[in-house]
Amino acid sequence: MTAGAPGATARWVDLHAHSTASDGALSPAAMVGAAHRAGLVALALTDHDSVDGLPEAARAARALGIAIVPGVELSAYEGAREVHILGLHLSEIEELERHLTALRSARRSRAERIVERLASLHAPVELDRVLAIAGPGAIGRPHIAQALLEAGHVKDRREAFDRFLGAGRPAFFAKHRLTMAEAVDMIHQAGGLAILAHPGPQGTRERLERFKSQGGDGVEVRHPGHTPEDITRIGALAETLRLLPSGGSDCHGALEGSRCLGGMQVPGEWLDRQVDRVRERATTGRVA
Predict the structure, then answer these.
(1) Which partner for 245 in 24, 53, 86, 221 could form a disulfide, CB atoms 3.0-4.6 Å apart?
(2) How is residue 180 annotated by DSSP?
(3) How far is Cα 177 from Cα 19, in angstroms, rounded to an integer?
(4) What is the pLDDT of residues 130-143, one digit of tens each?
């Protein structure tokens, strides 16, 4: 029975969450445990540029009797604008892992350049400490911001971005720019569905049509960064354009609020529709 069916018990899922495999605070197994305690029937683990947490999450999910949706969140560019694309229902990830390894290598090189620049700005941090903060996950600016905080150069991570790490600031270096079309293709090669993540007020008909023309499969409708108006507009456009709806908390380990697991109340029916689309592709070789 799906969420919303007469007499059905509501089935809630969360299709956007992060673990320590990227920049989350909880291990993949701990994230699955939190999802189970929240009463979710399924969780998508969508770490940034990493699928390393999926085996651990799958083991924990089997033990607890909930479904794990293998996923990833890729950073791509639409012109000069950075956009995030979720890959959900991944099944063939060997080639994707090769691409992600290259992306992580580029992230490390970028981190090294930032650390060198910070030293010249009299705000030195140790690269080894940045790597320790990142752990097994992909290295990002939040990890460097934490190192700056620990070293006493800033009062909080926001100041780290405002003074040093944000776009246009003295220690900013742009990431390798993966195009939207390249990201969608990587996800499709891995057997997954490409979902435009949290478009917010930029989730216009023109933009969603452009994403679909590049092979995009769906759009994130429910997200903590969306206003009620965003959710209504994007949901209506998804139905009109035959883009699959998706949603999640974008949880990085928060224990309360809309960014905790289950905080966005994403109906299980949306997951069912995505699974049907994956099966259709497997049968016909194309996505409607």
Answers:
(1) 221
(2) H
(3) 24
(4) 999 987 666 889 99
- Lookup result for tokens 């305690």: 37
Contacts of 268 (CB under 8 A, 6+ apart): 2, 3, 10, 11, 12, 13, 41, 42
Bridge partner list, 194: 87
Which residues is 88 bridged to in the sheet?
Answer: 71, 193
Inter-residue contact 19 to 28 (CB < 8 Å):
yes
Per the document, the length of the chain is 288
| Distance separating alpha carbons of residues 71 and 197, to the nearest angstrom | 12
Residue where the block lists tokens 């720019």:
177
Cα–Cα dist 93/201, whole Å:
32
CA distance linking residue 228 with residue 169, whole number of Å: 33
Across the chain, which has 288 residues, the per-10-residue mean pLDDT values are 48 96 92 96 94 96 97 91 95 88 87 98 97 82 96 97 96 88 95 97 97 97 97 98 97 82 95 97 71
Give the CA radius of gyration of the chain: 19
Q: Between helices 127-134 and 94-120, what is the axis angle to 10°?
A: 140
pLDDT tens per residue, range 86-120: 999 999 988 899 888 888 788 899 999 999 999 99
Residue 245, C-beta contacts closer than 8 angstroms, at least 6 positions apart: 218, 219, 221, 222, 235, 238, 239, 270, 273
State CA 268 to chain mean position distance: 19
Q: How far apart are the first and last CA of the chain?
A: 24
Both tokens of residue 47? 């770490």
Closest alpha carbon to 67 in 91, 97, 89: 89
CB 212 within 8 Å of CB 203: no
Across the beta sheet with 218-222, what order do the strands follow?
Answer: 244-247, 218-222, 193-196, 81-88, 67-78, 42-45, 12-14, 266-267
